[in-house]
Amino acid sequence: MKPPPFTYHDPRSVDDAVALLSEKDNAKLLAGGQSLMPMLNMRFVLPDDVIDINRIEDLSYIRDDGDALVFGGMVRQRDIEFSGLVSQKIPLMKEAILNVGHRQTRTRGTYGGSMSHLDPSAELPTVSMAQDAIVSVRKKGGERDIAMADFPMGYMTPSFDLDEMVTEIRVPIWPEGHGYAFVEFARRHGDYAITSSAVLLDVADGGKITKASITVGGVGPSPLRVTAAEEGLAGETGSADLFTEIAEKCREIDAMEDVYAPAWYRQHLAAVLTRRALAKAYSRAVNGTEMNLR
Amino acid sequence: MSDRRTISVTINGETFEREVETRLTLSDFIRHECLLTGTHVGCEHGVCGACTILLNGQTARSCLMLAVQADGQEIRTVEGIAPNDQELHPLQQAFQDNHGLQCGYCTPGMLTTLLEFLEENPDPTEREVREAISGNLCRCTGYQGIVAAALDAAKRLQAGA
Looking at beta carbons, which residues of chain A come within 8 Å of B23? Predict the structure, then answer.
């Protein structure tokens, strides 16, 4: 349970970090370390070079760009937890972040690190998928943006190249007063969820849903948008019956299976949690009392 | 050839300068290089919380950091909680009085975690305490006493303030 030998680098700028990345064949970037350090301790990864990006100072901003909040890749999960901007503009992220590990891990864990690790149950990628975030990655001599829909390539595999690093995440803001809910089921508070559901609803005066975003985490190999369910909500007025019917579509998702939970159980949880999240989000949007749903 | 660096870390007010392998974890640095064995190492993958320390005033897992990353930083461990050699901190006293520890393995992590938590939330509910220590495992399953100690400590700290 000790990290294997490696050569350690601690560049002070993104330019230096990506230069190292392009130069070294078997290198790992060390962000908050809350996933990579366990993997090093258990020797699941054996990098020749570890490039620690914690000494790069200008990646820790949260900026309000009007239509989006822009996060530097090294923003700590704890900074998100206590950010007034985040609770005001992206309340879904605020609700979700309290489920990301524990206070002790949020001190170190970063937004960019969570995105790069891309655990199918991780909350920040799930929220990013729900909000249609755009991820900026940089390599030596180039930068590009990846829409969240194209960001996951497979199980724990983002679509950027090995010589690229996440520098920024741009999260579009939904209209003021929108409905939101993040609901998850985990064996212990702070553990990776077995399944989670993130819902965003825009509701017009009179209660008609004008826009819906539904994402489930922990069901597929990466967070998944449930477009079939989203389409069924447009133009409808929210009700317990509608949400129950719509949430049932989550049972049709091709689900993962592992020692913790069979596929049918993840599908079941996805349906139940999405039903609850829909009701909660809708109630919040119409400022009503919470809908009585099991 | 192992990759080595000289680092300087302030722990409980004392500065430790050591040449270390860059792959050394902070928890092993604290225990083996600085000989502060109050910080315990349980799972070494961030699940058990026994190695929790305060990094620049914020709780963090010392097994999930490299010692080189703490170069120039301020750390507080369980040894830095009591005001002096004779007295216990009110939180420690509450642990003793409420049977908040059995084997004592999880205690340093419980104390550091609760120290920060009670500063932020001086009058917590039982549920809030349980959530605060959800990242700390007690293999004796002595949570009842730990939660009672935390609630008692909150009262003592408020009375003392």
Answer: 2-6, 8, 40
